Amino acid sequence: MVAKQNTQQKILDAAQSLFAETGFNDTSLRQITSVAEVNLAAVNYHFGSKKELIQAVLQRYLRVLMVRLDQEFNRLLAAQQPNNLTQVLAVFVKPLLELNSVHHNGTRIFLQLLGRGYTDVQGHLRWFINHHYGRVLDKFVLLVQQSCPQLPASELFWRLHFSLGTVVFTMASNEALAEIAEADFSEEVDIEGVIQRLLPYLAAGIAAPVFSCSHPQQQLRSGT
Amino acid sequence: MVAKQNTQQKILDAAQSLFAETGFNDTSLRQITSVAEVNLAAVNYHFGSKKELIQAVLQRYLRVLMVRLDQEFNRLLAAQQPNNLTQVLAVFVKPLLELNSVHHNGTRIFLQLLGRGYTDVQGHLRWFINHHYGRVLDKFVLLVQQSCPQLPASELFWRLHFSLGTVVFTMASNEALAEIAEADFSEEVDIEGVIQRLLPYLAAGIAAPVFSCSHPQQQLRSGT
DNA sequence: TCCAGATTCAAACGTACATTTCAAACACCT
DNA sequence: AGGTGTTTGAAATGTACGTTTGAATCTGGA
């Protein structure tokens, strides 16, 4: 059955879990090839370098995800009137959950990898994603902008990155959080449950009134 | 003037900036001692190991910050009626900004280090902070609970971790974000500006209505 | 001045890493 | 069965790391 599995797949499968748990720089090719039960040199033979392996691991998910997201974004952009923010955020749910068909626990692994990519390495994965999929993500920014016309562009920029941080950090520490939640609240939590809890939090944060901080003696400077 | 600066201080000063920018594992003792202009062996002589240096770097700030936070929390806890959420979150601002008196750019550096601590290393700094300052942080949880009595404890648990993620991720990638913001919106961003932008986002997210996600065909299971 | 303890220094140690090399094994086609 | 191009294997290369060592240097009190 599983007898002759592709070496490349064995490497990708082993690498994605180790990368997600330990980070890119803290996972050695020796660990990966040991778990994958392939020769050390196989990584460089099939992928060229560790850097390219990291990109290949992410590409397996990005390829699927971004096509689906693009469809959803185009659907919403075709609407006559602006969509509300919750609807816009909700389009991520199904495409993300469908990553589970790419690989078992694919959604969790992908989001953890994304988190690692934004904190571990200095910019190189950030650039990779933006270079390949920036046009798709721009559509999302446009949708949010349409649904929150009162938000200045700069405020929106920060809040979208705050939201990215929320998601990415939550997923990176998802395992620990789920354990505590189960112990303290005897409440089973799967990845879908976490996503459903995230949506209202993100929607409220992004759409928050701009200056709700009541600290009159410390105010922002008024412009350029 | 600066003639004979303490070796330990020179190491701490060099280490904190490099750690904040590059992360703990990706900063070598050779880089640190090179910048500090001290001998490589000085780190192990004065601090014992790299791990203990990391903790010493953080302790310099945590010692100051946690005393101040404890004061603020006690003050709010003594109030007759529950404080509103924005007030509770706002108590972080002054203690955090006072870290600038520990060292130039202390606030930014500390928050970046905190971000690194939660993503770089697996748990060892998490444990260190919780072990030394868990009792202080419990007071904060209590305050939030009092200000949001309608929130179930489990929901609060998740949202506080979402918020931790927001802060930590934002600070870990602070430099990159600030650069983009300046380039795209020609807007200078200092650490205080980011904090002021964070507060409304966090307050709105934590206090968000519990089931604002309008996806009737996907609902959470109703509990045990 | 001299000496003991604290500090600095250059050098080395052992380990782990990504990558390369080249021969052996394999797969596939005729 | 034979031969070619692809894939695997064990070993080695060179580099970087954290830590250790032991002698040299500094420092302050007698």
Largest sheet report of chain A: none
Span between N and C termini of chain A?
A: 66 Å
Topology order of chain A in helix (H) and strand (E) letters? HHHHHHHHHHH
Query: Tell me, what's the shape of chain A?
Result: globular
Beta-strand fraction estimate of chain A: under 5%
Q: What multimeric state do the chains show?
A: homodimer
Low-confidence stretches of chain A: 212-224
How many helices of chain A? The count is 11
Measured by residues with Cβ under 8 Å of the partner chain's Cβ, the largest interface is: A-B, 68 and 68 residues
Would you tell me the overall average pLDDT of chain A? 88
Portion of residues within helices of chain A: 55-70%
- Please identify the structural class of chain A as seen in this structure: mainly alpha
Kindly provide the radius of gyration of chain A, computed on alpha-carbon positions and rounded to a whole number of angstroms: 20 Å
Secondary structure tally: strands of chain A: 0
What does it look like?
Two copies of one chain form a homodimer. With 224 residues, chain A is mainly alpha-helical. Helices cover 70% and strands 0% of the residues of chain A. Chain A is built from eleven helices and no strands. The first copy, chain A, has helices at residues 7-22, 29-36, 41-47, 50-77, 85-90, 93-97, 106-119, 124-147, 153-172, 174-185, 191-206. At the A-B interface, helix 5, helix 7, helix 9, helix 10 and helix 11 of A face helix 5, helix 7, helix 9, helix 10 and helix 11 of B. The first copy, chain A, binds a DNA duplex (30 and 30 nucleotides) through helix 3.
